[in-house]
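Hello,

Following up on my earlier ticket. Below are the two sequence lines again, exactly as submitted.
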Amino acid sequence: MARRLSILKQPIFSTFNNHLIDYPTPSNISYWWSFGSLAGLCLFIQIITGVFLAMHYTPHVDLAFLSVEHIMRDVKGGWLLRYMHANGASMFFIVVYLHIFRGLYYGSYSSPRELVWCLGVVILLLMIITAFIGYVLPWGQMSFWGATVITSLASAIPVVGDTIVTWLWGGFSVDNATLNRFFSLHYLLPFIISAAVIIHLAALHQYGSNNPLGINSSVDKIAFYPYMYVKDLVCWVAFAIFFSIFIFYAPNVLGHPDNYIPANPMSTPAHIVPEWYFLPVYAILRSIPNKLGGVAAIGLVFVSLFALPFINTSYVRSSSFRPIHQKLFWLLLADCLLLGWIGCQPVEAPYVTIGQIASVGFFFYFAITPILGELEARLIQNSNVCEDLSPRKLSHIFKNSIYVVK
Amino acid sequence: MGKVPVRLKEVAYTISPYHQHVMTGLWKDIPYKLSKKFHENWVSAFTLVVPIVGTYMYAENYRENEKLHHRY
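Thanks for your patience. The regenerated structure is below:
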């Protein structure tokens, strides 16, 4: 493309050209690789709708709920903005979870893309904080009590816990001070996420995208534009249809009806439940009877995700060529779906036991990762094909083959 | 850009889309394609579906038994 349009060789335009137009992309990447750009689209939608919502929202305990109703009823297109923003958050998490699971299946986290993965986990963490804070803003019953429950978790920290909670709240309970600072942070954090996304893409563009085979794809690259641009466009259109079904036909199905009741500090809901995208982590938190233990377990979830590229010992990236890991992947997915279901159930039998077993199962996947690579390598070594090869020779072949990680 | 310079391939289309029969190609040998998909992925599908369905059925059965146990 730069050969036809010389302006693309000029400064600024050349950066644009190198990263978005003539950028080398593996020719065999599937539609699972479109979720990255889709996540970027979701971030853009959230920022734009959020900025316009903020023009009409009032961050005061006596006015917040009413201002949201004002947006829904009186502001031209306000209902659309609100539903796009609320459902857009859910869409954002669906897309990002699919993006993460694609990375797990095809080994996109392994060398040399460890930094890309770690930055992705940072983005996920920022998204979770932003979404949690944003859910408080409508000041409904779930907003208030969800904020109370989750911010109170910080009191589990020994010695300074209560001080930290008071500092977070800006007072002695979730009140006006909390709402104001949450509004401020909810406006700020998406721009921090945007910066993290730019660094995530820069890290990705160091070595290029992975591909379904998990092999080095330098021998077969095509330009991003027009091929991947058109592919992503197809995905964007499909996403727009899926998104529209929720906005126009079922805008409240992913929400909780209790959040249409104004917050009442004197009345605790029977079941305090976060939004669906927090349910798996919420289930892990509730599985541990001890408050500090539950908080530590949540921390361990993110530590495990961060550590994954560094504890992986497999020489093969893609699960297409790792039969044991493939089964474990599907078990992990089943486990996460079960945790999500358990998260919205009451804390009673048999859900408590199921939640505890599922939580152990979640961490089991990460615990077995260091052993799994070695186990699969030994199985290959012990098979008839590799009978004559010593472990040293096998390792040498793996390291120099196009099928491997390095 | 990436650390290793790569040569980009240019894909050249010489056949008009109207002569490529893209859509009919999708439906061609559909039973064989479905059968192949099933044979390649049935173990993975079971690994995903069975724990979820099995756990849900166990939980429902447990609750039902508890209701019966508390019934006079």
